Amino acid sequence: MGRKSVAILQSNYIPWKGNFDMINMVDEYVIFDDVQYTKRDWRNRNRIVTKDGIKWLTIPVKNISFHQKIMDTQIVSDEWAEKHWKVVEQNYKGAPFFSELGACIKEMYEKASGENYLSRINYIFLQGICGLLDIATDIQWSTSYHPEGIKSDRILDICLKTKADEYVSGPAAQNYLDLNAFEKRGISVKWMSYNGYPEYGQLHGYPFSHNVSIIDLLFCTGVGGARRNMLSFF
């Protein structure tokens, strides 16, 4: 049997290409959902390029408690889906691949509008876009593994329960990950690098930005172009 690689990341709303790049790099991707929901973060919002510059698309959610988990975070109403789609359509209808991919993304919005929980909404887009990109990585929920501990120990516990040999982590985790603990349990840590992404033609004439939702890349370059713009497909 070969080595098993695993990545663990919190649920995000239609994330950027780096998130999908990481998913494509590993054998199993775990949605880290049983942790605290963070406000003004990527959990319920992301950015797109509009006629007025880069703007946020934000799903309104109910903030019941400071300690509420991502998995327990509910949306305010289902009106967000139609509003978001109209903004996307208005700003990307002139993109080279909107006519090819617009109906598919719209269908994801229609499906997501029936969900009350943020994590389920994010999962619909994650699964749908992985399907477009032909990413076949196994996607699981952290709750399936009943993780124990906090911070680095919690990540390690999930890795052990997934029987991972390698943990692929985003660079931000360098601030808290206990590498010695992973090494003692026979799990190597690989740091994801986002250096080397090429620029592509974005709409509306603003300075180029990588830090936007992957739908920008898809509408501007198509599925084939998106794959060529992601490091794990090289």
Strand-residue proportion: 5-15%
| Low-confidence residue ranges | none
Strand numbers in spatial order across the main sheet:
5-2-1-6-7
Mean pLDDT: 96
**H/E element order:** EHEEEHHHEHEHEH
Distance between the termini: 24 Å
Structural class per helix/strand content? Answer: alpha/beta
Helix content: 25-40%
The structural domain count equals 1
Broad shape: globular
Query: Largest sheet, if any?
Result: 5 strands, parallel
The number of helical segments is 7
Number of strands: 7
Radius of gyration: 18 Å
Summary keywords:
234 residues, alpha/beta, five-stranded parallel sheet, 7 strands, 14% strand
Describe this structure in words.
- The chain is an alpha/beta fold and 234 residues long.
- The chain has one domain (5-233).
- Helix content is 37%, strand content 14%.
- It is built from seven helices and seven strands, in the order βαβββαααβαβαβα.
- The chain has helices spanning 17-25, 79-92, 98-112, 118-133, 151-161, 179-184, 214-228, and strands at 5-9, 28-31, 45-50, 53-58, 138-141, 166-169, 188-191.
- The strands form two sheets. The protein has a five-stranded parallel β-sheet, sandwiched between helices.
- β3 and β4 (53-58) form a beta hairpin.
- α3 runs antiparallel to α4 and α3 crosses α7.
- The longest helix is centred in the middle third of the chain and has 16 residues, at 118-133.
- The two termini are 24 Å apart.
- The mean pLDDT is 96.
